[in-house]
Amino acid sequence: MSRGFSSQLLDNAVSQFAKLPGIGKKTALRLVLHLLREERGEVRDFVESIRAVREEIKYCRCCHNLSDTDTCEICSNPQRDHRTVCVVETVRDVMAVEGTQQYRGIYHVLGGVISPMDGIGPDDLNIDSLEQKVADKQVEEVILALSTTLEGDTTNYYIYKRIAPYGVKITTIARGVSVGDELEYADEVTLGRSIVNRVPFDTTI
After folding, report:
1. What pTM was computed for the model?
2. Domains along the chain?
3. Distance CA 193, CA 185 (A)
4. 3-class secondary structure for 109-146?
5. Mean pLDDT, consecutive 10-residue segments, the chain of 205 residues?
6. Which of 80, 121, 142, 151 is buried most deeply by CB count within 10 Å?
7. Whole-angstrom Cα distance, residue 192 to residue 188?
8. Rounded to whole angstroms, how far apart are CA atoms 100 and 88?
């Protein structure tokens, strides 16, 4: 029995929790012991919610955001501006922008950025479907809201070159904002202002 645990079941549970990012062995043990003190029904609900997240959550067929249905709540909302698309790297960035309450358009989640060092090229991202939206005249403005890193800038420029020939308006969030490198770490007020004060992308090249 490892780590002095008197139960192999406890050992296994701690090992699984410790696989989560930011969770060490001591924190994992506290979490498992907490669950042991909970009512069995509460623990069953907890386990079921984790199972459902992994097995039932889908990717929106329109924007690639996480969704319980084929089309996410944002894309299916008629009150949103479907002519304006904010391009972001990940689902976490959608959450960050939504938290500002300053944006009423829809999104397009790329699933990452172009990074040759990591073996990620344009074909590995959701860029073709974005171009198709623009080509089909579904979009009037594309907001590029990727991280201010070399990879983010490279991806911004690649997308710009792909969709500029269609004559769509292409903007980017204000660059005078320090957002760490990822939108999710920006405070809501600052991020909201950067979206409202977005500028034409071609002026940043």
Report:
1. 0.84
2. 2-56 (1.10.8.420), 78-203 (3.40.1360.10)
3. 15
4. ECCCCCEHHHCECHHHCCCHHHHHHHHCCCCCEEEECC
5. 74 95 95 96 96 94 96 97 97 93 96 95 97 96 92 95 97 65 67 87 84
6. 142
7. 6
8. 15
